[in-house]
Amino acid sequence: MLQLSQNIEEAKKQLNSGNIELSIIILTLCIEWMGAMIDKKPLKAPKQTKKRFDMAINKLLSGNYAALNRDSFFYEHWRNQLIHTGKPSSLFIITTNKELKHLSKNEDKKIIFNPDVFLIDIESAFKKIIAETSKK
């Protein structure tokens, strides 16, 4: 739990210093780690990446993220592309323009992705995990 908190804080520092790419990579990895925290399998259980990512999206982020992850779209086109190449898929436009709605589609059918909103959403998801674990 502490490591996840530190990673989110590091992503925030990177984002505030203008290193957007590194911050979104860290935050994207946090989704998978949060999925590992809410499943009942051992942390190092094999072949859990997609399941854990999808579980975290659906249970912790929900809303537009869950809609976007239908058929694991967000996993395939955001997470995999970003983690394996260090760059987001061309289906996404990364912007900090607050006038553009996060996870909406523009006129070219590209998905608007705002890293500031993403950070807030990951922080909220993490708070849900903290609340759940404090109940146990």
Overview of the molecule:
It is built from 6 helices and 2 strands. With 136 residues, the protein is mostly helical. A two-stranded parallel ribbon has the order 1-2. Helix 1 packs antiparallel against helix 2, helix 2 packs across helix 3 and helix 2 packs parallel to helix 6.
Instruction: Give the distance, in angstroms, between the N- and C-terminal Cα atoms.
Output: 14 Å
Q: Please, what is the average pLDDT?
A: 93
Order of H and E elements: HHHHHEEH
Bin the strand percentage: under 5%
Shape: globular
Give the beta-strand count.
2
- What can be said about the biggest beta sheet? 2 strands, parallel
The structural class is mainly alpha
Rg, Å, rounded: 14 Å
**Helical percentage:** 55-70%
Low-pLDDT segments: none
Count of DSSP-assigned helices:
6
Q: What's the arrangement of strands in the largest beta sheet?
A: 1-2
